[in-house]
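Q: For a teaching session next week I want to show students how multiple molecules come together into a single three-dimensional assembly. I've collected the sequence lines for a complex. Could you give me the predicted structure tokens for the whole thing so I can convert them for display?
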Amino acid sequence: MDDTSRLIVIGGSWGGIQASMKILQGLPADYSIPIVLVLHRLRNQEGSLQELFDKKLVLKAEEVDDKAPLESGHVYIAPANYHVLLEKDHTFSLDDSELENYSRPSIDVTFSSAADVFGKNTVGILLSGASKDGSSGLKYIFDKRGTAIVQHPGEAEISTMPLAAIQSTPGCSILNVERIQAYLLTLHGH
Amino acid sequence: MKPEQNELFELEVEALIREIHTAYGYDFSGYARASVYRRIKRFLGQKHLQSIEDLRKFLFTDSFFFENFLQEITVNVTEMFRDPTFYKSLRENVLPILSTYPFIKVWDAGCSTGEELISLAILLEEEGLLGRTKIYATDINQKVLRQAKDGIFSATHMTAYTAAYYAAGGKRDFAEYYTSNYGSVKFNASLVRNVVFYPHNLATDSSFNEFHLIVCRNVLIYFNRTLQERVYQLFDESLVDLGYLALGKKETLAMSGISSKYSFVDKNNRIYRKNS
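A: Of course. Below is the structure for the complete assembly, covering every listed component.
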């Protein structure tokens, strides 16, 4: 059953590729909620993340095209050099304005925009990283009564990002990737 | 801003867009909202303003302040040889065909401060086409057009631009194209000798010429689907048969009504060619 009234947004930096891969590998091809993935990477690097995820996941991994509609069964990857925003009609808008937290794509930008559109139906997940990007976005999701999840700092390859998020959003859930995956599976089809 | 204030904020933005149209003639109604909200929140933060109400006080009493607002709301972030593979592809797949025309007309739509324009001019120069090419460089914003015309840029990014130039298949010493002076660089005026600069608003103005190549990269991402469709129709009217349309790497004609009249020259770099 498609459920595009909800959205899962996942952010990560250093160590975030591996962590998000582990989580997403356990999800079925018909997973009902669309997923947006914002991972920091080197500027002007092209394509390869999409290929990597598409090869390893049963879900369909694609880079976000401007104005593409959200569909279930898809993992949408933020393209290099663009911020990813969500519109009220559940389509994407891309944005190539200034870096935020030294990053483009910025996790804060996507998390906040997702929460503006999906409110309490937003699930934000922040993974490993050596950056503070994502913590204010995760707080924004939490304040909008969405679900805020942070990868357990002890498990994260780099704990800077999870620790920053736990500090800014003390009410978040702190889970290891296995538990995060299990949680996402409980959302499937409900 | 507190999330619960957001619904009110969004309503106020709609009213503001209507007021700006009435007072200054700029129509932002077709702009992608997610981005407009973000730009306005950012502007409020920069100016230490608490609300749209505070913003209105300045916006409609101070036209200089409005100019500044316009500058910030319309994104002008740009760089030279952004996506080097795009320029490489343009050089290898498009310019050889354009070289068969006796005279070439190019439209750089939404040229901003001119980084893309300089990149195009250098490419045309190196392929021996600049002398018989006329480039129309347009933007909604007169201030950035003046900057583009001056061809002066901060030296800060020159290392990155030089690397991008070579990655794009640059054939010369990049430093040949500019002179450095006190932290800024001025590009040779000969690069823009055949360029006409003028204000054009993609949201409201019409077609003004016919072109062999239209370059409009990462401009339409700030528009909603309806306004994008208007602009695609405008481009279609402005392209000769077999003309080329170059969009940003993540922009697509797929959802547009003109899509069936175009084929990919390079799918990865979103270079399209109009069918005959």
